[in-house]
Amino acid sequence: MKDSSPPHSSAVTSAKAPADPHASVLYDPSKLLLIAGPCSLECSEVAFPVAEVLANLQASHSSRLQVIFKASYDKANRTSLGSPRGPGMEAGLTLLQKIGEATGLPLLTDIHTAPQAAEAAGVCQVLQIPAFLCRQTDLLATAAQTGRVVNVKKGQFLSPAEMSFVVDKLKQCEAKEIWQTERGTTFGYQNLVVDMRSFSIMKRNGQPVIFDATHSVQLPGADGGKTGGQREFVLPLAKAALAAGADGLFMETHPDPDNAISDGPNQIPLSELSTHVEKYLQIWESARD
Asked: Which CATH number fits domain 32-288: 3.20.20.70, 3.90.480.20, 3.40.718.10, 3.40.50.2000?
């Protein structure tokens, strides 16, 4: 899809309601947590079909599944300077707000700098800290102070045990709810590997642990100046992670992954998502017996 994104804005100009610090805890241990959506928010023609499928999944499995719609308004860590980054903060948050109002689904998006936290928190129930930024103290502290859920991607350069320091920072900053996400560890050049021990180790921190099934099959920088991927391994790795004790899954899905503006090779085709979810629910429920 041709990128027609507006110039990026460092802040949303329209006023947004502040996050409610007294909002109830979002994670429910009796349900599989599913964070899903396109990698980049791109445009309404991409985002709304995905949101509709996710809303239907939530309605069909309300007693077993907690769905969060995710999308990034800005892919700020692209391999190449010329790679499209998405709609930008102002347009992106406006679109996310419309999706939330239309579907009733909680929303998640990434933030990259501390000033973005309050603006994103005015729209989204979950603020995500990208893996490369997971040790940025000011970013963690500001996200925690919004009162929203903070989901931290474990850096590709961190051991699972080191996530305890990230969680401690968020606790000291009085984060209301903390999620930890495993997304693979750098293994040589342009490859990632998932250590299934990570879920047990990170659970020692007393916070839910999520498996990022699509970013874990990335081949960073391996596709001629952009990230490649092996989506055929998403299903087996997600099954293994749930069997190993993961509390939830993060996965990116797109109506036409081969034409997505980012991470197309590792996104799940939207037409296959429901089948994936049925299989994941079976594994998750078996692992809890």
From this structure: 3.20.20.70
